[in-house]
Amino acid sequence: MFIEKENYFYIEEFEKYGITAVYTKKNAGNMSDYCPIKNQEEGIQKKNREKLLKELGLSNKQEVMAFQTHSNNVKIIDENTEKYYYEKQDDIDGFLTKRKDIAIFTFYA
Q: Count of CB atoms within 10 A of residue 53's CB?
């Protein structure tokens, strides 16, 4: 069941696993560093992500994201991970983690 909030849809079923899962609405703003919008404020994507994490009570989480390549390549984020942003040439399309200090951002059109 989706619960509609002002800036996102919250997926209630994930709560039982200790996971916060949301789909943001357009009014939450652009959050993707690799999809800039013409004439947008520089760095607004980072500010939008920070605002969302604060709203969700997750400000202390490490953001993880990739320039998604529509491949079948999934990156495991574990205790040895030191890189949290993946460029197009990294060819990553998804993530898996058990870490509780991680906020994964994926982007959909």
A: 17
The HSE-up count of residue 52 (CA atoms within 13 Å, CB side) is 28
What sections of 3-87 are H helices per DSSP?
Answer: 44-55
CA angle, residues 85, 81, 48, in degrees to nearest 5: 35
> What is the rounded distance in angstroms from the CA atom of residue 103 to the CA atom of residue 20?
9
d(CA 37, CA 58): 26
pTM to 2 decimal places: 0.89
Q: Where are the beta strands (DSSP E) in the chain?
A: 2-4, 8-11, 22-24, 62-66, 74-77, 85-86, 94-97, 102-104
Return the bridge partners of 67, or none: none
- For the stretch 67-97, pLDDT in tens is 999 999 999 999 999 999 999 999 999 999 9
